[in-house]
Structure formats: structure tokens, C-alpha cells
UniProtKB/TrEMBL annotation:
GO CC annotation terms, alphabetical: plasma membrane
Keyword Membrane assigned: yes
The name this protein goes by in its record: Glycine transporter domain-containing protein
Keyword Transmembrane helix set for record: yes
UniProt family annotation: Belongs to the UPF0126 family.
């Protein structure tokens, strides 16, 4: 869909398909150093990615129900890739945190490479519904069940949990909060200002004057004094006139 939005040719479709589908697993296998990437040794991975690119190029897959199907399929693929990365890292003797990291990279790494390739900020960095977070949560049952000796159930549980969370996030628009100028310093200053304003009694608090209050008051006083001055000068002029007479 991204390739169609960017109006790419067939080469662009195939390149983005390989990046999206296999990029995360290739990064994982390169980091784990457990042999060549499985995407290069398995005879079905690359042909499957190319077949998907051809289908997306020649068929315009759109519509309400098709979009829903893509959302559901992508959600459960997210959980399955997470489980694959977690189980492979744990089987290689790595700890829990590296296993969770490998699971997340397997699930979202390909999408990150795709977004960077087309000049976009990766969608998992903000402004999108929960995706990488769903992968992190899905890795928890995978780790627990693998340590209990049930690697098959670990894969199934992570697939279901990750898919359910990703679908619910799209349905209810769950998002993580973004940092809009927040810092501990600004929070401390705001709390300090509120505490200081509440520490004084109400009758001692200085309320800000409405806009233009001082200017209007100044004009009224100047007008009053000017009227008084004009009256006084008129009176003195009258007195002077009577004296001259």
C-alpha cells in the first residue's frame, strides 16, 4: 500500500515488499550471529515476498472489508514474528531482555526500514496506534511459556496476545502520549507556582486587573483634573475681571 501511495514502479514494489516482510528477521539474525539470515536460506521467504509485491502491483486491494482483513492479518503476523524472535533468542542462550528486543525487532524492524526508505518517520515512533507496544506485551507470555518448557504454546500465546492488542488498539485508537514540551523542570515550576499561590489567604491574593482597566482609570482621572483645572481657571478669570471692573 505504501508503494502504491508513493506511485512506485514494479522494482519499488518488490524492494519495499522484501524490506517490510523480511527486514526485521534479517536484522535479528545478523545481531544474533547464529548463521546466515533465514530469509536467505529458506526457499519460500523471498518468493513469497515477491509474490506479494506482484499481487499488490497488479491488483488494487481496497474497500472496507479488505482493509479490515489487512488489519487483522497484520496484527496476528505481528504477534507471530514477535514469538519467532523471542524463541530464537532464548534458544540461542540469550537473556530475557535481549530476547524481548529481538522479538520487537523481528516484528517492527521491516516496517522501520520501509518508512526510512521512502523518507518517512517510522510510524512506531509516535502518532500511530499501539504497535511496538503490542509486540513488547506479546513477548511476555512467550518468555514465560518458553521457560516453563512449552515453546509451541509460547508461539501460539504470543501470536494471540499480540494480535488482540494490535486490533484493539486500532479499534479504540489507543496511543502513547507524546512529549509536547514536557520536562521535569517545567512540572516543578508549575507545581511551585500553584503551591505559592495557595499558601496566601484569599483576601491577600493579588488578582490581575482586567485588560485596559488602568488605562481607563487614568483617562478618567485626567479628565476629572482637567475639568477641575478648567473650572478653576475660569473662576480665577472671572475674579480678575470683576477686580478690573
Amino acid at each position: 500500500m505504501v508503494a502504491r501511495e508513493m506511485r512506485l514502479d514494479i522494482v519499488g514494489f518488490m524492494a519495499l515488499a522484501v524490506m517490510s516482510a523480511l527486514g526485521g528477521g534479517m536484522i535479528r539474525d545478523t545481531l544474533l550471529q547464529m548463521g546466515p539470515p533465514i530469509a536467505l536460506t529458506n526457499p519460500f521467504y523471498l518468493p513469497g515476498a515477491f509474490a506479494g509485491a506482484l499481487i499488490a502491483f497488479f491488483l488494487r486491494l481496497s474497500g472496507r472489508w479488505w482493509n479490515r482483513l489487512l488489519i487483522v492479518a497484520d496484527a496476528f503476523v505481528l504477534g507471530a514474528w514477535t514469538a519467532t524472535g523471542v524463541v530464537k533468542a532464548l534458544s540461542g542462550g540469550f537473556g530475557i531482555l535481549p530476547a524481548v528486543l529481538m522479538g520487537v525487532i523481528t516484528a517492527v524492524g521491516g516496517g522501520m526500514i520501509r518508512d526510512v526508505a521512502v523518507g518517512r518517520i517510522p510510524s512506531i515512533f509516535g502518532g500511530n496506534t499501539l504497535y511496538a507496544t503490542a509486540s513488547i506485551i506479546a513477548s511476555v507470555p512467550a518468555v514465560v511459556l518458553w521457560h516453563l518448557g512449552y515453546p509451541t504454546f509460547a508461539t501460539a500465546a504470543a501470536t494471540v496476545v499480540g494480535g488482540a492488542i494490535a486490533i484493539a488498539a486500532r479499534r479504540y485508537r489507543w496511543r502513547l502520549p507524546v512529549n509536547d514540551g514536557y520536562s521535569l523542570g517545567t512540572s516543578f515550576h508549575r507545581l511551585h507556582d500553584r503551591t505559592r499561590s495557595r499558601s496566601y489567604p484569599k483576601f491577600l491574593r493579588v488578582r490581575p486587573s482586567p485588560p485596559g482597566a488602568g488605562r481607563g482609570m487614568g483617562r478618567s482621572h485626567r479628565g476629572l483634573w482637567s475639568r477641575r483645572g478648567s473650572a478653576g481657571s475660569a473662576g480665577s478669570a472671572g475674579t480678575a475681571g470683576s477686580t478690573e471692573d
